[in-house]
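=== Per-residue structure ===
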Amino acid sequence: MLWLNEGDMPALALGASILGAGGGGDPSLGRIMACRALERRGPVRLLSPHEVPDDALIVPVGVIGAPVVMSEKLPVGDEVVRAVSALEEHLGRRAAAIMPIECGGVNALLPVVAAAEKRLPLIDADGMGRAFPELQMVSYHIYGLRGSPCVLCDERGATVLLEAPDNLALERLVRDQVVRMGGVGYAAVYSMSGADMKETALPGTLSLALRLGRAVEGALAGKCDVLTALREVTANSTYGPAVVLFRGKVVEVTRTVVDGFSRGRVVLEGVRQYQGKTCEVTVQNENLMAQVDGCTVVTVPDIIALVDMDSGFPLTNDELRYGYRVTVLGIPTPEMTRTPQALEVWGPRAFGLDEPYVPLEPARGGWEGAL
């Protein structure tokens, strides 16, 4: 039996930053919110999917919108709790457990807030295995569940209930409402039974984020090399082992908030063995594609994570600035994210990228060991 307490939140935030693929919102803000909720209410039990009764009501929660907006327009802290309570009232049932929409970035931490404040367990699973920018880009949708009804709350006290005929229509309605809320909203969505959760969710993702974060913490404490530690953790999971794709200095960062998304690119000039080469990362909230000298080396759904070249500390796209020296890591995602029906929803062409999906495996990247 695993319980999450305040001491686990720094590691969970670090691991969530890696799985967030550069996006997913600022996990440090979620860490502070989760620590406060755990301090008030006590630890939260982390349940394996198989521990959940088939007839239990499961409520996924998370923040929707442009991550940079959340950092500038701070939440009060009760938004996801209000969303769950409003959805419970609408359904006429009390939730049995909380689950993340995604395990990357702040959305790995906000479910801890909801679980602690509602005094409910948290399920060790999510709908993405990383972070994605759109509401239908979840395994719940891919494998047949409805997102409606959806409750959306903001930091000013507004609560909106949305129903849509299908999940694509729900994404449009939610995105429209999020723009009206100032660029960010907090959702309870894709409520489901325990049986449906076991069929559609990616298991073990929160505990993986925790292990990744602890690997970074151990490395930063001087116990081991961070990249080697991350490779070992990912290799012993449903993901593939992390690979080094590039090392370079940030020479350009562009980002624009359009239709509720943060869009842009990051350009790196190579250093060390990559001297004379250029890497460009395409961004829509999260890192979607990395190209070296115009040749694609990795695309969604595989994870592109940028870490500080000296410390190995993970960096979000909102943090990146000119002159930062970073290592570009690729992490192969689980087989459940690579099925033909999954790639239709979150493969490269779903984002308008004219690229086929070629799975990232260790042979496609390099591995150079220590920083």
Observations:
- DSSP finds eleven helices and 19 strands in the chain.
- The longest strand covers residues 243-258.
- The two ends are 35 Å apart (CA to CA).
